[in-house]
Amino acid sequence: MARIVAELGRPETPEETAARKAESSRRYRSSKTFRNLIAALLATVAVVFVIVAIVPRGTPVPRPEPDVPALAADLAADRGRPVLTPSLGEGWRVNQATVEGVGGTEAWTMVYVRSGESGFLRVAQGFDTDEAWVGQLLAGTRSSETVEIDGITWDVYRPANPSGTGNIDYALATSAGPDYVLVYGDAAPETAALAAASVTSQVKQLKEIP
Asked: Model pTM?
């Protein structure tokens, strides 16, 4: 029996029946697609949450420290002269050790940092250079005094504007034969003196080079 269309007060025609069923199917498919989309999104979020929850979040493994003595030995053989191997003692680790160029001067530079704390200290050996190299690194800062450490006289530098010198607020420098040695950073003067004392024998050997 044909379906009665209330609005028309008569049975619907075959065309109207087909149109009604087609529209019903369209709405069903549309509703099903939307539900599937929501379900897929929820499933994706759940998977991401599980992955984040199970991934271990431990402390990153620190990169190995450069082997300063081994690198210095190779560099000494190449340069034909002693090369610095400083030691700052417990609590300090070497973060970088390389030959870098600053203002036309090649320098064997080591960067030391305190484990788990702020602060740094660089020890640099400028090859075949003079005091002008120190002025370049310290933005023209002049020596304010001298200090003797293990029989070696070091010039003391106290930059008035550390923000203009890469946070360097204290430095020690001395000539060493053809080279110049600079200890600088934001560490305490006592720490800089310790680093300077640790290279005493090498500085004395350099001073003997004509």
From this structure: 0.70
